[in-house]
Inverse folding.
């Protein structure tokens, strides 16, 4: 039996649709249930529901053989997992945004020598600014990131941008896109080797659906 | 000042039954190594920092615990054994008859995120074979790895065998900057198909080369993988690597051990010092590899003695998490002695080799 970790939230419905199309059906209504573990009809798969940011951890440890999560979450986690498939949903960008579109080279309207950046992605943010040689102070937040530059907590934000609507409504705009993100299939390195036939079968089934 | 009740992150304390089991595990593995004529080497827990940088290459050096001695030398707590052993072989054992077979067992320290039962201080146990090039030495160390699993009674273990020369031969002829090679390795390392496609769009490569790179992540399986790879590559370095792997696989088939061997040409991770075969061992239902090794012919040369070298190490902390049915952990049965009668009885039993426990 293969264990697959799925994200609660906006990724759940498309993930389940994809699995159903690949022939993996779950008898229960996962979305409305409060349970966390579900067996597929033929008992060859077990789905576990976890927080999106935790999917890479479950897979890296092999507690789940595989998982579905956004590329943003995988990059931030730095988990050492295989990522063979782009599942082609959940498209968005990880971007730097600010109240005005002036370039990163000229610090925003501030007398601070080090700019402040608010984000849910402290590691991605640090890597990005380090690679550019720009000193930053990272302010880790867990939600409503867009608020930070509006009330003077930060000069910039690094956040997930889907349509850009939230940014626009709050008078912000993208300064630079750091990376494109979409849903990915994650696989544990050891499981890929020791359960190869089962894993490859699922990858092929999913590939067919995506194409 | 931290409270003395805390232990530093990445350390652990092994007590009683768990410690007994660890020692039996280590002893069992050492006896396999000794059975193949390997002698123990007990290297120091610290050495000059440069030894490890020279050995491990750039990258992992940031994981090394460094300190400065009273004369100003930079020292390091050993982050692995191979560099230390290679240095010893190239210097103190330079005039010894070859091949030299050594094994080690002990703790190493790396400043990294503790995970998978492996802390920052963790136990490694492994072998090093110096002075033997070619398939005989390669097969010898692989067979020792197989016997170790068998002796521990571990079922469903699997050794993934690849070669740095296969991928090396493919990228040798590609003349683009080092950072693009790194990007290429990064996407291949996680088998990221869409990332690879995005990268290939910008790389000045012919269709044949692109076809090879697209195939690399999938070249994992039985002997058929070698035949599949032969259709793709024509450069001598890669072809030699395939010949070599095929020979090893054939020997395993003849010994009826091929079921434990998987050819894995898509595996391109590892310390810079690897130069030929490269392997990792996995056990079903453990999420992390339990052993890894390979050939590192250039390493002794870095210390002044040009010698072929091959070896591997087991992660003791990870082996401990696996069911080892044949491992017998002896219970300590001691006779309780009442000291009111004097210590004579206790001494008498001790002289006859019996365990005693004094009642207070």
């Amino acid at each position: 039996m293969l264990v697959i970790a799925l994200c609660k939230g906006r990724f759940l419905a498309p993930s389940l649709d994809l699995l159903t199309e690949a022939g993996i059906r779950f008898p229960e209504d996962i979305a409305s249930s409060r349970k966390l573990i579900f067996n597929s009809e033929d008992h060859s798969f077990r789905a576990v529901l976890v927080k999106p940011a935790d999917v890479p951890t479950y897979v890296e440890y092999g507690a789940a053989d595989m998982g579905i999560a956004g590329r943003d979450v995988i990059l931030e986690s730095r988990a050492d997992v295989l990522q063979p498939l782009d599942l082609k949903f959940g498209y968005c960008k990880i971007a730097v945004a600010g109240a005005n579109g002036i370039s990163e080279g000229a610090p925003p309207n501030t007398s601070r020598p080090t700019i402040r950046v608010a984000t849910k992605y402290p590691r991605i943010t640090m890597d990005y600014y380090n690679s550019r040689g720009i000193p930053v102070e990272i302010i880790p937040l867990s939600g409503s990131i867009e608020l930070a530059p509006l009330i003077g907590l930060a000069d910039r934000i690094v956040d997930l941008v889907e349509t850009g609507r939230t940014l626009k409504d709050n008078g912000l705009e993208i300064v630079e896109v750091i990376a494109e993100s979409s849903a990915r299939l994650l696989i544990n390195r050891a499981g890929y080797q020791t359960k190869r036939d089962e894993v490859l079968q699922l990858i092929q089934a999913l590939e067919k659906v995506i194409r | 000042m931290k409270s003395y009740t805390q232990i530093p992150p990445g350390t652990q304390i092994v007590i009683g039954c768990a410690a007994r089991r660890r020692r039996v595990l280590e002893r069992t593995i050492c006896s396999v190594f000794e059975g193949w004529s390997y002698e123990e080497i007990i290297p120091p827990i610290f050495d000059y920092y440069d030894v490890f940088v020279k050995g491990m290459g750039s990258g992992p050096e940031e994981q090394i615990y460094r300190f400065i001695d009273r004369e100003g030398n930079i020292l390091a707590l050993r982050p692995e054994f191979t560099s230390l052993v290679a240095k010893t072989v190239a210097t103190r054992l330079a005039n010894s008859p070859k091949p030299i077979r050594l094994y080690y067992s002990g703790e190493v320290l790396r400043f990294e995120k503790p995970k998978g039962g492996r802390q920052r201080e963790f136990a490694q146990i492994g072998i090093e074979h110096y002075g033997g090039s070619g398939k005989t030495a390669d097969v010898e160390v692989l067979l020792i790895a197989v016997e170790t699993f068998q002796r521990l009674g571990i079922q469903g273990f699997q050794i993934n065998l690849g070669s740095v020369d296969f991928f090396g031969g493919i990228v040798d002829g590609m003349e683009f900057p080092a950072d693009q090679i790194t990007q290429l390795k990064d996407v291949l390392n996680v088998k990221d198909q869409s990332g690879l496609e995005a990268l290939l769009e910008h790389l000045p490569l012919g269709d044949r080369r692109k076809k090879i790179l697209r195939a690399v992540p999938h070249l994992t399986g039985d002997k058929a993988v070698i035949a599949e790879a032969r259709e793709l590559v024509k450069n001598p370095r890669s072809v030699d690597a395939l010949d070599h792997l095929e020979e090893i696989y054939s020997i395993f088939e003849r010994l009826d051990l091929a079921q434990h061997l998987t050819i894995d040409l898509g595996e391109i991770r590892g310390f810079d010092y690897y130069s030929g075969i490269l392997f990792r061992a996995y056990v079903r239902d453990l999420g992390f590899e339990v052993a890894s090794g390979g050939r590192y012919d250039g390493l002794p040369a870095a210390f002044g003695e040009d010698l072929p070298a091959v070896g591997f190490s087991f992660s003791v902390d990870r082996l401990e998490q696996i069911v080892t049915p044949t491992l017998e952990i002896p219970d300590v049965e001691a006779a309780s002695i009442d000291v009111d009668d004097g210590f004579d009885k206790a001494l008498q039993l001790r002289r006859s080799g019996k365990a005693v426990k004094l009642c207070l």
